[in-house]
Amino acid sequence: MGVIERYADRLPVGPSTPLLTLGEGWTPLVRSERLSARLGVELWFKCEFTNPTGSFKDRGMAVAVAKAIEGGAQGIVCASTGNTAASAAAYAARAGVPAVVLHPAGAIAAAKQAQARAVGARVLEVRGSFDQALRSCQELAGRSSYALVNSLNPHRIEGQKTAAFEVIEQLGRVPDVLALPYGGGGNTCAYAKGFAEEGARLRLVAAQAAERAVTLASAIRISEPAHLDEVEELVAAGRVELVTVPDDEITDAWLELASREGIFCEPSSAAGLAGLGRTELDAGSTVVCVLTGHGLKDTAAVDVLTPAATVVEPTVEAILAEVGA
Ligand SMILES: *Cc1c(COP(=O)(O)O)cnc(C)c1O
Asked: How large a percentage of the chain has pLDDT more than 90?
């Protein structure tokens, strides 16, 4: 069951909305084995990278593409740093409509572009930034029968808010703190909305890269967050805490997740954990860290952050000399 069916009574869907799904949602909430002790809290990971195309974007995309089709759109269009494109392309293929995806030239992880190409999307590389690509998409959607499925599309936020419902249901209570990366801010707004609809009060920690334009965490490499005004309002209202993290803290958090918990996410996903390192946490509190995208999406980052494989002769002696076992 996907999010449209599971949360039909909580979403703007009706009998004429297609039940479009690739099995998104109901992702694992995994208890931390080692980092809990270091932070002095009870830490959990919401593993959004297990969604069908490997990121949380699938929740919102299922709803956005279904609503676009219900509304008579002939196709969908989006600008993307990669994961939105991979998700949009997959749900468009599933729905049987064409997808056009634009991304900044040379600034997309190869695997994400491969995902979009594999399912037959029209992939365009824009000579410009993500922000410029997004503006072109908005204009194209305004002039054509293609629906914009960036997170400016409110149905994306609706779909993504379902993750907040799941966290409460899986944990059996409202966590004290939930941390997540802040790129364009759509997901921050979605969690805030989902928790508010549940009447849940908690600390929402949104972590952005200190150097937004050039961070190694490509999924949050966005200079002008599309949801900046809403996020600022949430911060002013005391509903979101904004934390800024330098890249070395993001990559340290990424390495720690991988080597100490066995969880391989993409670097952007580790921004939430890095953000927790910069906040005061009450001892023993329940903390959920949202892991947004799969590690296999950005293996170039792995090449930068971990030692390369060593070449050895096919003998036990040579292997023992290397591993020292
Ligand atoms: C899209 C994305 C983000 C950022 O989400 P926003 O809604 O733009 O703030 C973070 N991590 C990953 C892996 C993403 O794909």
From this structure: 92
Tell me, rounded to whole angstroms, the distance of Cα 286 from its chain centroid: 21
- Please give the pLDDT value at position 37: 94
Q: In the prediction, which pLDDT does 108 show?
A: 83
Report the C-alpha gap between 95 and 75 in whole angstroms. 10
- Which ligand 1 atom lies nearest to the CA of residue 49? 13
Domains and CATH numbers, the chain: 3-56+155-305 (3.40.50.1100), 57-152 (3.40.50.1100)
What is the tens place of the pLDDT at every residue in 183-197? 999 999 999 999 999
Q: Is 151 near ligand 1, meaning CB less than 6 Å away?
A: yes
Q: Could you tell me if 11 and 4 are in contact, meaning their C-beta atoms sit under 8 angstroms apart?
A: yes
Pocket test for ligand 1, best of 27, 55, 205, 296 (most atoms within 8 A of CB): 55
Sign for the CA dihedral angle at 180, 190, 147, 73 comes to positive
Are 113 and 123 contacting, i.e. CB atoms less than 8 angstroms apart? yes
CA 139, CA 125: separation in Å to the nearest integer?
17
pLDDT of residue 325: 72
Q: Residue 194: CB within 6 Å of ligand 1?
A: no
Instruction: Judge if pTM exceeds 0.90.
Output: yes
Which residue puts its alpha carbon closest to atom 14 of ligand 1? 219
How many CB atoms sit inside 10 A of residue 241's CB? 17
